[in-house]
Each structure stands twice: as structure tokens, then as C-alpha cells.
Design brief:
Layout: E1 2-12, E2 32-41, E3 44-50, E4 60-63, E5 68-71, E6 73-78, H1 87-94, H2 99-104, H3 108-117, H4 121-137, E7 140-146, H5 153-169, E8 173-181, H6 192-210, E9 215-220, H7 227-239, E10 243-248, H8 256-262, E11 267-270, H9 276-283, E12 288-291, H10 293-299, H11 306-311, E13 317-318, H12 332-341, H13 347-354, H14 356-361, E14 379-382, H15 390-393, E15 400-404
Parallel strand pairs: 1-4, 1-5, 6-7, 7-8, 8-9, 9-10, 10-11, 11-12, 12-13
Antiparallel strand pairs: 1-2, 2-3, 5-14, 14-15
Helix pairs in contact: 4-5, 5-6, 6-7, 12-13
Length: 406
């Protein structure tokens, strides 16, 4: 099967040679071919170029006059498997309670864990499927999904099995991350050693035996898991072949960034608290700094220093953190808007951060993230737009007209 998209106003993120990441000043460079065509054959990008070079042959022809074509977003950090919403905590936040205060009252992650543990697998699957479909409609073609609302042996395994079912049914590219170390369950609040033992000696061997996870994650931050506790869990994950992706420095200078770099984490995520020492550590690593601006926006947190990081020469990725408590949306277009408005990223930087760099942050940069011959044809066509910048500018509107997955 072939699809020819013709008369494209701008074919965006064209990379003739596949690159893994874009960093520093290069993030302002976004390759675009004006008045272009794109040929898809057998689910892959076959060829592209100026309309004057467009081939005659094709099964289906799509006229994209006035529209842009982009590689789909890669959302490298989500928690879309959960039971029930947490709008009551939304009101608590309006009344001035902090994220940590809500958690101490039994809200937050522990609240979601209680609900998930009594929800059956089919119900979790159907609700997560609806969220995936919603994300796809906004232009997302690849999603990393974390466990972490189980906080028990049965709950965590159930979540990872739901992710496996989603992988089997969905055409999107999905990755599974084991986040048993998301928080300490109520029954282990005074027995951290007992929960870490459960994670390392019971959960991890089962998960590895069933092949349920691609990565391992730990919430390394104040009030959650210390750097030393994180190291023990990552050591155990490494024995089962699981590369880390770390929640780091959302609430304080936690040592999470340095720990992630030490263990060659694929990414360290959140990073609201990032200074010169953390930037220097990241500069000497292959770890992708991943920013989640909707979380800082929703919780009213100190914002990650994106401008400082990019100006220092780092690459930056963007993700939604879609979850019920701190970022109840998977709209990556809104993430780009927040990156520009709140983090002062240029639109070109935001597009790079949500495509090629976020593809790297979930380990799929060789298959996705750019318009490159041989990559999967996960692309979307915009509605008519006067310019590419119009997408992050028009923050309340869905500017995606059509999504094509493989």
C-alpha cells in the first residue's frame, strides 16, 4: 500500500541522515521543505522532496494544500493507566494545599493506588485505550506508559499486563516502564526496607520473567525515594536488563539527576530544580533531560530552567506526564504552547524537543521522530495554518486534521 501526500505547504523535521538528538543552539534549527510531497510505502517513509520531483505512482493521494506535515509527537513520560480522577485534590490545590500536603493526607499517588487495586484489568484497559485514542487525535504516535499506581505486587503486575494488552492492540509505538518505586504504600510508610525488598526480590523477577517492562523508573525526590534507595533499586533493575528513566528534582535538589547520569539513565524527567552542577553532569552524559511543563503549570511549581539548559548546550525533550493528579491531559500541542509561553523556548526548539529528542527519551529515535527515509510513517497533517508557529500560538485549538500511523 502506498500513500502520496502532495502540495504540502511545509514538510517539517526533514532529516536526510538520521540523528539521535538535537542539542543546544542546534535546537533552533528545524529543517522544512516548502511546497513538498511525501511518499509512504508499506508503512514507512519512502521518499520526499519538492513537488516538482513528486512521483506519479501512488495508491492513495492526499492533497495537503495550505497544510503542514510533521512526524507524530513522541510522548516519553505518561501515567495513563489509572482508576478514577482526582478533581477533589484540584480543589485542595486551589485552597492552597501543596502536592506534598495532599499526599500526607492520603491523597496523591496513594489515593490512586487504592482505587487501582480494586479495579479490574478490563476496566483499566478500556479507560487507558480511550486516553490513547484521545492522545492520537492530538498528533501523538508514540507513548511511554508507566506503572506506579499499583504499589503492590498484584497491582503493579496488573498495570504492566494492561500495557502489554495496549501494545498488542494499538498501532501506536508503546513502551512500558516499571515504576513500583513511585511512592511508599501506606503499610510501608515506616518500613522502607520492607517495600524495597518487595520491589527487588519479588516484583522485579516476575516482571523480567514475563518480559513486562522495557525500562525501570524511581521517583527520586524529597519525601519519596532517596538517592541511596534509588541506587539500590536501579542496581536490581540492571541485573534484569532494565535501563532507568528517573523522576528527578521535581520538588528539590534531590540527587536524582546525578543518580540518573551515574546509572546511564535514558532520561531524567521533571527537573524543576536544576543548577550548574546538574547541567554539568548532564553535559557529560547520554541522558536526555525531559521537561514536563504541564505539571509545573498545574501544580504551580517552580518551572524547569529550559532556557538555561539549552543555552548551556544540552538537548531537551518534552512530554505530557498525563496522569490524574498533576497533569490530567495528554495534549502535546498544549505542551508545546507551555514550553514557549512559560519556559521561553522558541517554537523550533519545542518542535525538536517533542519529536526527535523525545523519541530518543523513549528509545525509538531510529524508528520515529523525524521525516527520514526508512522510518515508520507516523505522521500528521495539520489543518490549514498561516505558519508553523501558529500551532503553539493557538493553544486552545487542536490543529491536527489527520493522523497516519504506519
Amino acid at each position: 500500500m502506498s500513500i502520496l501526500i502532495k502540495n504540502i505547504k511545509g514538510l517539517v523535521q526533514v532529516r536526510d541522515t538520521s540523528v539521535s538528538t538535537v542539542r543546544g543552539a542546534d535546537m533552533k534549527q528545524l529543517p522544512v521543505i516548502d511546497n513538498a510531497y511525501l511518499l509512504i510505502e508499506d508503512g514507512k517513509i519512502s521518499s520526499y522532496g519538492a513537488m516538482t520531483e513528486a512521483p506519479d505512482r501512488a495508491g492513495e493521494v492526499i492533497d495537503a494544500s495550505g497544510r503542514y506535515v510533521l512526524p507524530c509527537w513522541c510522548d516519553s513520560h505518561t501515567h495513563i493507566i489509572y482508576a478514577g480522577s482526582r478533581e477533589g485534590e484540584f480543589v485542595d490545590k486551589i485552597n492552597g494545599l501543596s502536592y506534598e500536603e495532599i499526599a500526607k493526607r492520603g491523597g496523591g499517588i496513594v489515593n490512586s493506588a487504592k482505587r487501582l487495586q480494586i479495579t479490574d484489568e478490563d476496566t483499566l484497559f478500556e479507560s487507558a485505550w480511550a486516553r490513547l485514542s484521545e492522545m492520537e487525535a492530538f498528533g501523538t504516535g508514540a507513548v511511554e506508559i508507566k506503572s506506579g499506581y499499583g504499589l503492590s505486587y498484584d497491582g503493579e503486575i496488573k498495570m504492566l499486563r494492561v500495557i502489554r494488552r495496549l501494545k498488542e492492540k494499538s498501532k501506536l509505538t508503546l513502551k512500558a516502564t516499571f515504576l513500583g518505586a513511585h511512592a511508599y504504600p501506606t503499610e510501608f510508610k515506616q518500613d522502607h526496607e520492607g517495600y524495597i525488598d518487595l520491589l527487588i526480590n519479588k516484583m522485579l523477577p516476575h516482571i523480567a520473567g514475563e518480559g513486562l517492562a522495557d525500562y525501570i523508573d524511581v521517583f527520586c525526590d524529597r519525601g519519596f525515594f532517596s538517592a541511596d534507595e534509588t541506587s539500590r533499586i536501579l542496581d536490581a533493575g540492571a541485573k534484569h536488563g532494565l535501563r532507568p528513566k528517573i523522576h528527578a528534582n521535581e520538588l528539590d535538589y534531590s540527587g536524582g539527576i546525578e543518580t540518573g547520569v551515574k546509572y546511564n539513565a535514558l532520561s531524567v524527567d521533571h527537573l524543576e530544580y536544576t543548577g550548574d552542577e546538574q547541567i554539568a553532569a548532564l553535559m557529560a552524559s547520554g541522558t536526555m533531560p525531559t521537561l514536563l511543563p504541564s505539571t509545573a503549570f498545574f501544580l504551580g511549581l517552580h518551572e524547569p530552567p529550559a532556557r538555561r539548559m539549552i543555552d548551556a548546550g544540552l538537548p531537551v525533550a518534552l512530554a505530557s506526564d498525563y496522569n490524574p493528579g498533576s497533569s490530567p491531559s495528554g495534549n502535546m500541542q498544549f505542551i508545546l504552547s507551555l514550553a514557549c509561553i512559560k519556559l521561553k523556548m522558541m517554537p523550533e526548539e519545542a518542535f525538536n524537543a517533542a519529536t526527535i529528542n523525545s523519541a530518543y527519551a523513549m528509545g525509538v529515535e531510529q524508528q520515529l521522530g523525524s521525516i527520514t527515509a526508512g522510518k515508520k510513517a507516523n505522521i500528521f497533517i495539520t489543518k490549514p495554518m498561516p505558519s508553523l508557529t501558529y500551532m503553539p500560538y493557538s493553544f486552545a485549538n487542536n490543529m491536527v486534521e489527520q493522523v497516519i500511523i504506519s
